[in-house]
Amino acid sequence: MKRIINLIYSMKIGFIGLGIMGSAMASNLLKSGHKLFVYNRTKEKAEELLKQGAVWKDSPATLAREIDVLFTMLEDPIAVESLALGTDGFLNEMKKGSIWVDSSTVNPSFSKKMSEKAIAKSIRFLDAPVSGSKVPAEKGELLFLVGGDKIVMEEVQPLFDLMGQNAVHIGDHGKGSAMKIMINQLLGQSMLAFSESLSLGMAMGLEKKMAMDFLLKTPVTAPILEVFRARIEDENYEPNFPLKHLQKDLHLFTDTAFELNKAVPLTNAAKEIYAQAKQKGMADMDFSSIFKFINE
Amino acid sequence: MKRIINLIYSMKIGFIGLGIMGSAMASNLLKSGHKLFVYNRTKEKAEELLKQGAVWKDSPATLAREIDVLFTMLEDPIAVESLALGTDGFLNEMKKGSIWVDSSTVNPSFSKKMSEKAIAKSIRFLDAPVSGSKVPAEKGELLFLVGGDKIVMEEVQPLFDLMGQNAVHIGDHGKGSAMKIMINQLLGQSMLAFSESLSLGMAMGLEKKMAMDFLLKTPVTAPILEVFRARIEDENYEPNFPLKHLQKDLHLFTDTAFELNKAVPLTNAAKEIYAQAKQKGMADMDFSSIFKFINE
Amino acid sequence: MKRIINLIYSMKIGFIGLGIMGSAMASNLLKSGHKLFVYNRTKEKAEELLKQGAVWKDSPATLAREIDVLFTMLEDPIAVESLALGTDGFLNEMKKGSIWVDSSTVNPSFSKKMSEKAIAKSIRFLDAPVSGSKVPAEKGELLFLVGGDKIVMEEVQPLFDLMGQNAVHIGDHGKGSAMKIMINQLLGQSMLAFSESLSLGMAMGLEKKMAMDFLLKTPVTAPILEVFRARIEDENYEPNFPLKHLQKDLHLFTDTAFELNKAVPLTNAAKEIYAQAKQKGMADMDFSSIFKFINE
Amino acid sequence: MKRIINLIYSMKIGFIGLGIMGSAMASNLLKSGHKLFVYNRTKEKAEELLKQGAVWKDSPATLAREIDVLFTMLEDPIAVESLALGTDGFLNEMKKGSIWVDSSTVNPSFSKKMSEKAIAKSIRFLDAPVSGSKVPAEKGELLFLVGGDKIVMEEVQPLFDLMGQNAVHIGDHGKGSAMKIMINQLLGQSMLAFSESLSLGMAMGLEKKMAMDFLLKTPVTAPILEVFRARIEDENYEPNFPLKHLQKDLHLFTDTAFELNKAVPLTNAAKEIYAQAKQKGMADMDFSSIFKFINE
């Protein structure tokens, strides 16, 4: 164990993708004394980290040459592919034997494809998307859902520990991504089903607060919804998890179902109701604003 | 309190509707020494209760003349209306001041209509549908969701206590029914969303038992689903809560939304997927068989 | 034939339900010299007909005592049931052997129920809903879809001829209503599918007018949509056929499917999208405004 | 005009993708005396054309070096991309100034991407998917929906004339593909809406043949459905247009809507009902078998 920790502390770490989630995660790595190289499409988002001691690199490729472990936390498969394989991409430049951990939420088939590209270059790959949003990311309380070789995961474990509460090995390449889209599908559906229930309850004459309190105590409601009680009560939809991102995750789920010749009619319906809300101007609100869309 | 209990013990109770739920509830009333008059469309279902001491009446009307409190536990609004107001119906024959508690799952608007019919005859009315299925009914652990006058509810409370763990006053007439259909909508949606998640998980290569265990532990899954783990794992769909009944409850929900000019697109989608399963021969299986419908 | 015409001209006709459609139909009966007795919930809507010579009756019951053939053209099953069987309802007062033609759009099961009520009173019944909206009604160019006894239909044929271009015998009681809801389901679906196609076409960069012209010429588009070209082009949604009525007809369709244990998932989805538009303030616009709902 | 015809007759043509549609189209080019080079992933499908005089090439790349105009008729964007840009792909090997006509059904955004790749190599590009299935392809009666430069289209017009009844210039790059997915969306929706209408009609007691005849005459039904009357009547679902291909086209439509931030809830519902039919074993039946899926 001590040996691994020493290994880790001598490792150089790269982080690409410094949005809300990525910068919080990178900051937690930095705080524990790791040497951290960072890159982001827009440099401004890196400023805070640079003040904390991170080292800026001008391209994914130049960053790649420096590091032993790379984390990516990007918006979607297109962004990952472009930064990995496009002009000045990192994959061609990483050292043999180094590790790429992709924490972006992507299709499992995309994770598998990336793992194959990595392996062809003798780079070790993990798909390790996270469950949790802004606040857990800041507190280092994320849950990593890991797909790939368990040995590689154990090597990265001390870094997962700095950013998260837990890291679970789900299975081989792509399985971390698989579990991630399953969880976000359940999240999106729970919120929407709850919104329809509450909204009709109000139309039937129930008082909003009483109805919410009652439903949130019953075992037919997902416990996570408790977190959103205040938002829905106050109709304050400052984004914690933007609606457009949840909608994109539902799209990844239905797209994967298409690839695998499975029908998922309820998820498709949910995806499209979120798409309607997105079209009606709610893309950047918190996804719990789906209540507002349903209710008004 | 003692006064009320004495009042109750001198009361004569009627029970109409002796299906799986109704006979278990009636049995719990009987066990505590109450005088119980019963009626059911098919007499065979009453045999067990008659052995336990219940008194058979040949029609709702003749039963109505004997009793102070009447419970009805029927399949749907049509059945309730027919036994209440049809030929030999009970409503015309109940004593002034007596109480009718309808525990059937019906639309709130129907409960309100029944309360008006009852009040016009100086009969006091509660809508008090129950949350819980066969086993809780047998153990006297149901949850009553009560709409109507709180004073009337308090009078009936000792009887609710015999049949249930709890009785909650939700609001005036129809509000008990309102909360009931909200809860069953959440139940139906949770099960279906979980089924799509698990089914795609398996198609993505996850092992069924591992995936179930993992999802059931996450806060995005409604805790009630734990109860159905064994059914889905073993694909044993002996009916506890038949799929056709859950589908009917979703229909009550969407029908009420139509009456109130509200759109509930996700619930409509869910209702119709259960309708497909019903059409494909699963009407009398447990509603958790929706997993089988989605997965195969 | 001549004999029947003479019979008809000696007949006294009643008309209940004088909305946009009903008053246009009644006017066509009146113009041909028939003696016409009318009733409507709000008397103002009858004024124009009274000037043309119609005779006002103060209740369905008093009207019923005068006439040999009664037409009803009401909003929904609840309205028909209330005027037929409620206080001062017409059914108890109609002469034995007289004919009731219900042209309202209702569920087939409701038409069957009404036919049974009528037959029990020795009154002959036809369900004869119409295909066509305001302008065809005024021009006497409606299509009657008739369910019931063919002999009875032949007797009424001269009156159908005054109001419509054609009357088709679809089958026994309820079959006219059956065909009506099938046709309106196709109408609603065509308009909505076309709206999604056109809207995405515009988002893909096609010019609206060109795309409409092209699609309307292809055989994958229902010819009736040509009628609505100008409305969608100019976004002028003055009601010809109000969206809430189309939505109600889709509800009759899905409700009938529920009664018959059939799943109709696409129609349910369509019904609920129109319900969303209704909720967002489009209830009284023409139903072609669903394009606006989808597109904005 | 004559000049162009001469030019065309001196042109060498390539054809890649010899499925049902592609081989019928290629055969029509061959019959008019053109020199035709062909390639297909499985050579057997080319045998008939080789007997008719076509010249086999062992790879897209070797074929590309020979020809002035290339037609591709492939299953989906992945197949097109792989044969164009993969190992031994054709795009790197085509002559400057030559023309690539992609008749595959693909997303408009993919067509635009291909046009950019082609233009970067000084190759001229048209997206020209076809409307029509097996029989029109054999008879040379297809409709080409063309996106790209009108001048280029005029140059290819004589070849379109050999394979089709008509070629319409819809707009610039991607617009042919746009119109194609709009038309197939309408086709899929019409068939499914009709199936639900007919199926419920039968459940309401209408005779199947009568109901079909009636509906097919009304203006609420898309005329193309007449073509499928016999299939549905006899429940003979030999594939003319396989259900899985229609389902894929609906997927291209909804995927494009996702790219453009548009919600298309009805099309998503339709797509997923076809996906259910696909999952239940109907992938290779004619798409009109959706009636069977709905009805049974």
Question: What does it look like?
Answer:
Four copies of one chain form a homotetramer. Chain A has 296 residues and is an alpha/beta fold. The first copy, chain A, has two domains: 172 residues, 3-Layer(aba) Sandwich (Rossmann fold), CATH 3.40.50; 117 residues, N-(1-d-carboxylethyl)-l-norvaline Dehydrogenase, domain 2, CATH 1.10.1040. Chain A is built from 14 helices and nine strands. In chain A, helix 9 crosses helix 10. In chain A, 58% of the residues are buried. The mean pLDDT of chain A is 94.
Proportion of residues in helical segments of chain A: 40-55%
Q: How many DSSP E strands of chain A?
A: 9
CATH superfamily of the largest domain in chain A: NAD(P)-binding Rossmann-like Domain
Query: What would the CATH topology of the largest domain in chain A be?
Result: Rossmann fold
Unreliable runs of chain A: none
The biggest sheet of chain A, with number of strands, parallel, antiparallel or mixed sense and barrel status, is: 9 strands, mixed
Characterize the overall form of chain A: globular
Assembly type of the chains comes to homotetramer
| Beta-strand fraction estimate of chain A | 5-15%
* Helix/strand order of chain A: HEHEHEHEHEHEEHEHEHHHHHH
How far from one another are the termini of chain A?
Answer: 56 Å
Mean pLDDT of chain A: 94
Largest interface: A-B, 55 and 55 residues
Our count of helices of chain A gives 14
- The total number of structural domains of chain A is 2
What is the correct CATH architecture of the largest domain in chain A? Answer: 3-Layer(aba) Sandwich
CATH class of the largest domain in chain A: Alpha Beta
Instruction: Write down the Rg of chain A.
Output: 20 Å
Structural class designation of chain A: alpha/beta
